Amino acid sequence: MKSPFAVFRKHQKVLMVVLTGLAMFAFVVLDSLTQNMAAFPPIFGCLVGLGLAWWLSGKAKHSWVWLLVGGVAGGILGNQFQIDYTANAAVKTSFGEISETELNSTIQRRGAVNEFLTRAFQAANSNEEQPNYQMLRSFQFGGNGDPAQEALMHILMLKEAEKINFAVSNDQISMHIDQATNNKLSEADYKRILREMNLSDTELYDLFREQMITQSIRRQLMPQYVASPQNYWDAYQKINVSEELAVVPISVESFKDQVGTPKEDELKELFEKYKDQFPGGPEPGFRQPGRIKLGYIEIDYDTVAKTIPEVTEEDVTAFYEANKDLYRNNVPGEFPNQTEGMNLSGENPFDSPPLDGPLLGPGMTAPESTSVPIPSPEKTSSEAPKPAESISPKPEMTTSPAPESTPSATPAPETGTSTPEKPAVPEGTSEPQSSLIRKPFGDAFARIQDEPTETQPPVETPKPAETTAPAETPPKPAETPAPKETPKPAESLPPVEASTSEPPAPAGTTETPAEPVKEEMKAEVPPKAAEPLPEFQPLDDNLKEQIRTQLKTDRVLEKMESIAAEARGELFKINSRYASADDSNRAEIVVEVQKAADEYAKKNNLRYVETPYYSAEELGESEDHPIGSSTEPAANRFQRTEAVTVVEQHFNVSDLQSLERQRYIVFDAEDPRTFNRFLHWQIDFMATHTPTWDEEGVQELVKEAWISIQAQKLAEERATEVAEMLRTSDKTWGETLESQTESGKEGSQSLVVSYTGPFTWLTRSSAPNPNPFMPPALEISDIPIIFGGVTNDFMENVFRDMKDGDIGLAWGGDRRYINVVRVDNRSEIEKVRREFLASQGSLFSPLAPYMMMNYDEGRNLLIRWNSEIYKQYEVKWINREEE
Question: Where is the composition biased (Low complexity) (predicted)?
Fold first, then answer.
C-alpha cells in the first residue's frame, strides 16, 4: 500500500509553491479585505477565474491567454456580484441610498481610530500602575448609541462639512494625539503600533481627519441646553405643587353610533395623511409593524394525562417512605445555649418573678431578707439589722411612673411634714433602684411585666411626696410599729392568708418567712402541656391525596417531555427540507413541510396549528393562540422570571437577515397556566412597511380610525356642554348631573363624579435606579380614575392652563375618554416660591431632581435636533422601526 505522503513527495515543489502562495494571500490580501469587504467579490472572482483557466488550459501552448481571460472574466462576474450585494440599501436620503456595507465601513474606520488611541495611551503610560482611562475616553470618537445610527450621523456631518469646505490640518491631528497621550508617546511606539495595525502614516492621518471633521461640525451645529432660573422654577413646581381634581369622564364609545357612513374620498385622504405613521399614539397610524406567521404542534396536558395509569396506594406509600424527610414536622430543637443543670421542667425562664419579691435570674438565690431597708449612704452600719417580726403585704406595682426614690419599709412622715430633698449619691455608690428600673431581660420584658393583669388589678400607688422617707432619718428597727398616719397596704389590697405549707422561720434566725401565697395564685391551674408533634407527618388521607397528585403530575410531564423530544427530532427532519431548497421551488417545499407536519401530528394524537400574521403585541395578547403567552420550559416551573417568551424568541432579532435565517427553526415552549407544550417555528414574516390602499385589512383600519375621530369631536362637544352646565349651576356636581347621561340621550351611561387625592405633576418612581449612586427616576404621577392614562399634555392642561377652581376639559392618554375636571386645593404658589428661593443651595446638586430634569430637557433638545437633521436630508430607514 502506498504511503499517503507519496503524492506529496512526488509533487513537493508544486505543492510548496501553492502553500506559500495561500499563506501570502491569507496574511496580506485577506487582512486588507477585512478593512474593505466591498472589494472582496471582484478579487475572489478573479482568483476563481484564474484557477479554472489554469485547469482548463492544461498543456496548451498559449496558457497565459487562458489565464488572462479567466482572470478578467472572474473579476467582471465578481464585480457584478458586488454591485448586487451593495445595492441592498439600509437608508434612503436626499443625496442617495446608503448601504449596510457603507455603514459597516464607517463603523470600522471609527473603531480603527479609537483602537490606535487606546494602544498609544497604553504605550505612553506603560510605567503607571493605574492609568487614567477616563481621560482617554474624552479623546476618542463616537457615542454609546446605536452604531448604525451613529454611522449615519457621521455621514450626514461629512455632508455638512462639504457645504462650508471645513478641513482639519495635520498639525491639529498631531496635537490631538499628543494631548491624548500626554506627550509621552515615543516615535518607536508610534511606528510599532502602525505596523501592528497594518496602517501607513498617511492612512492613519486620513482616518483621524475624517473623525475630527465630523466631531467638530457636530459640536458646532448641535444645540447646547443651558437651564435658566425659570427652568429651575418650572421643575421645582412640577415636584412640589399639588392639587386635587373633581372628574366627570365621558366615553368616546358612546358617540360612535351617532357617526354616519364615511365617503371613500374621506377615507383615502385620512389614509394618505397617516399611512407612514405607526399606530399606538393619540393620532391614527396605518404603517404596518413587522408580523410573523407561526406553525406549531401542541402537546395537550389533559390528553396525555388520560394515557397515564392512576397512582396506586402502594405507589403513594413507597414514595412517602422513600422521601420521608420531605414530610418532617418542624419540631424545634433544644435551646441553643442549653447546658446541664438548666431548668427543663417546661417553665418559661423569662417569666418575671413576683413583683413583691426580688428580681432573680435563673440559678440565683434570694437574699437573706427583702424587708430590711437600705441604709442611707451617709450612715452605714456594719451591724446586720435584726430580722423583721412580721411582714406587711406590699402594694402591687402599677404602670404609673416610679418615684425618684424607691419605697422602703421606713414609715412615711406624717401629713403636713415637709419632705427633705434627696441627697446626692456619693461617687462610687450605686443608687437604690426599684424592680421596674432594673430590667434584666431588656425593655420588652419590663413592659410586659409592667402591664396589669386580670388576676392582679392595679392598685393606686401613693404619691412620691407621701411615701418617700427622709434620707436623714436612719432606718428604724423592723419591730418598731409604723405610725398610724402611714397608709397601710391592707387598705388598698385585701390581706392575703399565709401559706401553711412551710412553717415560719425560728426566732433568731436570718431566714425570711415564706412569701404568702395569694388566693388568685391558688386558683390558677397550669395549662396542660400540648403533646409533642411526631417527627413525621402521618400518612393520612390529605397527605395521600397530595402525594397522588404530585406523582400523577410528574409522570404526565415526564411523558410529555418524551413526546416533545421525539417530535423535535422528527420536525427537524421535516423542516430541514426548507433549508436545502432552491429559491425556485421553495414555495412547493413550504407546502410539503406543512403537510408533513400535519400528518405527523394526527398520527401521534397531537394538534398542528398555523397562526395568522401577528405583530409582537397581537401574538402576546391572542386568546385563540395561547402560545403567545408561553415561555421556554424551565427546570423549576415556579421560577419563570428569567424565561424567554415566544414573542421574544421570534421578534428579538436585529435585522431581516437574522429573521430570514430563523425560518423553520424549531423552538420549545410551555404554557405556565396549563402546562401544555409547544414545538413552534416561523413559517413566514412580513417586514414593517407602508401599506397600500388595497392591502388586506387596511381599509377596515382606516374606517375604524375615521369613526373614532368623528366620535371624539362629538364627545368633546358634549363635554363642553357639561362643563358649562356645571359652571352656571349653584348645586353640587352630583345634584347637577343626577339625570344626565354621557351622550345626552336616554339609555346612555349615566355621568359619574369622581375625586382624586392630592397629586403632583411628577413623583419619584417606586422602582430603584439601576445606578445605586443615583436617586430613583422621576415619572408622571399616576391618577387611577383617569381612564387611558395620564400624559404630559394632561398635566400641562390641569396645572398650567387652569387655575384653582377652574372647570375645563382634559383628554386621557389614549383619547378614549374626555374628562370634565375642576381644580381643587392647589398649593399656594407664593408659599412654594418662597421655599424655592430658600432652597437654592440644593437646586444645583448633581443628584437634585431638578438637575436630573434639566438633563432630560437637554436630551430631548438633542433628539429634536437629530430629527431636524433627518428631515433636512429626508432620511428614511429601510426595514427598521426605530426612525
Answer: 395-421, 454-471, 481-515
Run of H or E including 791 = none
Cβ–Cβ < 8 Å for 277, 283: yes
What are the phi and psi torsion angles at 703 (to 5°)?
A: -65, -45
Considering only CA atoms, give the Rg of the chain. Answer: 45
∠ at Cα 41 (35, 43), nearest 5°? 80
- Whether the CB-CB separation of 254 and 742 falls below 8 Å is answered with yes
The distance of Cα 124 from the centroid of its chain, to the nearest Å, equals: 42
Between CA 650 and CA 663 the distance in angstroms is: 10
Sheet holding 89-93, edge to edge: 96-99, 89-93, 876-877
Burial of residue 479 (CB within 10 Å: 0-12, 13-18, 19+) is exposed
Which residues does residue 609 pair with via DSSP β-bridges, in sequence order?
A: 296
Q: Select from 135, 629, 490, 554 the least CA-distant residue to 311.
A: 554
- β-pairing, 242-251 vs 817-824, is antiparallel
Mean per-residue pLDDT pooled into runs of 10, the chain (883 residues): 61 71 66 55 70 64 66 69 56 89 91 93 87 85 83 92 92 93 91 92 93 92 85 89 96 93 93 88 86 93 92 92 86 51 50 47 48 45 43 42 42 43 45 40 40 46 43 45 45 44 45 48 60 84 91 93 93 86 82 92 93 90 87 68 82 76 89 91 88 90 94 95 95 93 90 95 83 79 92 95 96 94 95 84 66 77 90 82 44
CA 534/CA 536 separation, integer angstroms:
5
Backbone region of residue 96 per phi and psi (left: phi > 0; alpha: psi in -120 to 50; beta: other values) = left
Return the DSSP state at 750. Answer: B
pLDDT of residue 623: 86
Q: What's this model's pTM, rounded to 2 decimal places?
A: 0.57
| Residues in the chain, total | 883
Name residue 762's beta-bridge partners.
Answer: 780
pLDDT of residue 642: 67
For 457, other C-beta atoms within 10 Å of its C-beta total 11
**Rounded Cα gap, residues 235 and 854, in angstroms:** 8
Q: What cell does 754 get? A: 369622581
CB atoms within 10 A of CB 78: 22
Backbone angles phi, psi at 292, to 5 degrees: -130, 155
Contact indicator for 842, 235 with CB cutoff of 8 Å: no
Cβ neighbours, 10 Å, residue 275: 18
CB 608 within 8 A of CB 580: no
